[in-house]
Amino acid sequence: MRLLRAGVSYGSLVLLAGFLLGTVRVLALEPRFVVRRFALPPAPGPRLLCGGLAVGLMGVLELAVVAPLRGLSPVQVITARDPVSGSAYVVALGLMGVMPWLLTRCEGA
After folding, report:
1. How crowded is residue 29: how many other Cβ atoms within 10 Å of its Cβ?
2. 34-71 pLDDT, tens digit each
3. Burial grade of 31 (CB within 10 A; 0-12, 13-18, 19 or more)
4. I need a surface site. Which of 51, 59, 99, 100 has the fewest CB within 10 A?
5. Residue 43 gets which letter from DSSP?
6. Which long-range contacts (CB under 8 A, 24 or more apart) does 70-73 make?
7. What is the pTM of this model?
8. H helices of the chain, where?
9. Which parts of 38-82 fold into alpha helices (H)?
């Protein structure tokens, strides 16, 4: 019984750490790296365009790669999501798109 609890605890901690660190990585570290690496100007236009291009690429990849792997049509990929996970996915994509610009506002640049 002790071994089972240890295994479940370990697995839960790894999943939690991955979720928390993954969220920080995607929402803060990756956009900051791209903004600095490519020296994007602090104006909203270039940064929002960068985020929009990234979101567009995610959409294309989802339709071109994920849909065939799951055996779904492009329409089914969009309509087959349940309301909760679909909404969370749209919010996450929206945050991904605006994060390069939001970092500018947070940094006071």
Report:
1. 11
2. 998 999 998 999 999 999 999 999 889 888 988 898 89
3. buried
4. 59
5. S
6. none
7. 0.74
8. 2-24, 30-37, 44-61, 67-70, 74-79, 83-107
9. 44-61, 67-70, 74-79
